Amino acid sequence: NSQEDCYSMIDTKKEQERAELHRVIWSIANDLRGSVDGWDFKQYVLGMLFYRYISENLTEYINTGEREAGNLIFNYALLSDEEAKEAKTGLVEEKGFFILPSELFENVRQNAAQDENLNETLEKVFINIEASAQGTDSEYSFKGLFDDIDVNSNKLGGTVAKRNERLVKLMNGVADMKLGEYQNNTIDAFGDAYEYLMGMYASNAGKSGGEYFTPQEVSELLTRIAVFGKTDINKIYDPACGSGSLLLKAAKILGKDNVRQGFFGQEINITTYNLCRINMFLHDIDYDKFDIAHGDTLTEPKHWDDEPFEAIVSNPPYSIKWDGDANPLMINDPRFSPAGVLAPKSKADLAFIMHSLAWLATSGTAAIVCFPGVMYRGGAEQKIRKYLIENNFIDCVIQLPDNLFFGTNIATCIMVLKKSKLDNATLFIDASKEYVKVTNSNKLTQENIVNIVSAYAERKDKQYFTRLVPNSEIAEQDYNLSVSTYVEQEDTREKIDIVKLNAEIAEIVAREQVLRDEIDKIIAEIEG
Fold first, then answer.
1. How would you label 448-458 residue by residue, b for 16+ Cβ within 10 Å and e otherwise?
2. Nearest-angstrom CA–CA distance, 289 and 261
3. Is the dihedral of CA 277, 283, 287, 291 positive or negative?
4. Rg (the chain; Cα; Å)
5. Of residues 200, 203, 275, the one with CA closest to residue 28
6. What burial class does residue 154 get, using C-beta atoms within 10 Å of its C-beta: 0-12 exposed, 13-18 middle, 19+ buried?
7. How far apart are CA 130 and CA 125, in angstroms?
8. Residue 186 above 50 pLDDT?
9. What is the predicted pLDDT for the residue at 23?
10. pLDDT tens for residues 336-357?
11. What is the pLDDT of residue 211?
12. pLDDT at 332 over 90
C-alpha cells in the first residue's frame, strides 16, 4: 500500500507542478494576447521556451561533466566567451549545437530590461545558435528553427521600445515557469508546457489549430496499438506528423531508448514542421535520433530509402485534395500501383493508407485515424479496400466516439494495418460508447483506452462490442468496412410490458375515483 501512496504522492506533485506551469503560461498569454494574435503568440512562447531549454540543457551537460571531473563549483554560465570557445567543436559534435555563455537564456534575460537593443540581441543569438550547427551532422535538425519568432514584428508592438517591453515580459514569463531539475526526470515539464499551449490554441483556434493537434488520449490509444506486444522497435514514423505529439507518445510508452533508431516524420506546413523539431528537443530527443522532413508526403515522400518501420501512427488530414490521376507518375508509384487505382483527387485519405502500408515493416503495425466515409464509399475507394482485404492487410477497424477531436465533432475510426497476420479475418470494435463527457467534448479515459486495447489484443467476439469477421464475409458485403455493418448495436430503449402497463393505468383510474369521492364528501360537509 505504501507503494500506492508513493505513486499517488508523485501524481499529486506532478499535477501541482503542471497546474502551476499552466497558470504561468496563461498569465503570459493574458499579458501578450492583446498584441499578438493567438496562433502567433504560441510560436513566441514555444520559441522562447525552446531557447531557455537548450540553454539550460547545454549548461547542465557541461556542468555535470566538469563536476564529475572534480571541478565542483564550475558553472558554464559564469565562464567568459573566450574560455568557452575552446570547447565549441567538441560540444557541437556531442550536442549538435553551441551557445556562448553571454548568449545563454539566463544571461540575456538578466540584462534584458536594460538592453535597449534586446530585439537585435535576441536575433543575433538565434542566428548564432543555428550557425553553430552549420556544416555538421546536426545542421538539418537546427536549420530555420527560430524562423517563426520574429523579434522585429509589428505584431509585438509598433515601436522598438514597445517590442522590447513585450520581449522582456515574454522572457520573464518563460523564466518563471517551474520546469523542474533535469536530474529529477521531470524534464517533460517542457513537453507538458508545449502540449498545453498546443491544446489551448487548438481548442481556441478551431480549424487552424485542430488540424495540427491530436488529443493526448487518442495519441496514446493509437500508439499502444501500434507497439502492442513489443518492448522495443526499430523506429516510429508518422507521414503527416504535425507537431510530433504522436511520435513522442512512443517515447513515453516504450521509453525513448527502446525506439532504437529514432523518430521519423514528414510535415507539409513549414511552421508546424519547425514546431515538430522544437518539440523533439523539448522532449530530450537528440538531433541524431530524429529525422523530420518538410514537404508533401504523397507526391514527394522523403524517407524512401530508409528501411521499413515497425510502428506507424498517424492522424492525416481528412479528405484533402491531392494530384491523384492528374499526375501520370502516381499510378506507377510503387506505393499506389499495387491497388491498380488511385484514391480520388478530392479525397486523399486512402492514399495515406497505401503510403503507410508501403513504408511498413513485415513485422510492423500501423494505426491510422480515418474519416468514416473511406470505410463505405464506392468507386476507387471501394477498389482500394478490396485490394487491402484480399491481401489480408487490415488487422482491425475501430469505431471511435464522436466529438473527440478539436474542430470536428464527427465520429472517426482507426484502421490498423499489418503485413503478417495469423488469420484471414478482420476485427471490428465498436468503441463509440467508450468515453466520458467533459464540458462540450468527449474524452477517452485510461479505462476506455485499456478496454479498447484489451479487445484488440483478445481478438474475440463480444456482443455489442467486438466481432472477428472472415474476409470472405467482408467480400460479400462489397468490402464495406463500417463497424456498424458487423457489430450489432445494443437496443438501449426501455422495453415496455403492455399488459402490466394497462393494469397500472386501471389502478390509477380506480384510485382517482376514490379520491374524487372523498373530495366530494369534504365539499358537501363544508357547504352543509
1. bbebbbebbee
2. 6
3. negative
4. 29
5. 200
6. exposed
7. 9
8. no
9. 81
10. 999 999 999 999 999 999 999 9
11. 45
12. yes
Question: What SS3 class is residue 310?
Answer: strand
- 483 residue type, one letter: V
For residue 107, count other CB atoms closer than 10 A to its CB.
Answer: 17
pTM: 0.83
Which pLDDT score is estimated for 2? 57
Angle subtended by helix axes 38-68 and 118-132, to nearest 10 = 60
Closest CA to 31 of 137, 169, 207, 165: 169
Say if residue 210's pLDDT is above 70.
Answer: no
C-alpha atoms less than 13 angstroms from C-alpha of 377 in its C-beta half-sphere: 15
Q: Which residue has the cell 514569463?
A: 173
Burial of 368 (0-12, 13-18, 19+ CB in 10 A): buried
Show the cell assigned to 192: 507538458
Q: Cell for 74?
A: 564550475
| Grid cell listed for 146 | 527560430
Cell, residue 257? 531508448
Nearest-angstrom CA–CA distance, 243 and 212: 7
**Are the C-beta atoms of 375 and 328 separated by less than 8 Å?**
no
Report CA-CA distances (Å) from 310 to 220, 233, 261, 363, 437.
17, 6, 11, 6, 34
3-state secondary structure of 248: helix
**Concatenated DSSP letters of 222-235:** HHHHHTTT-S-BS-
DSSP string of 50-72, one letter each residue: HHHHHHHHHHHHHHHHHHHTT-T
Q: What does the CA dihedral 284, 287, 289, 291 come to, rounded to 10 degrees?
A: 120
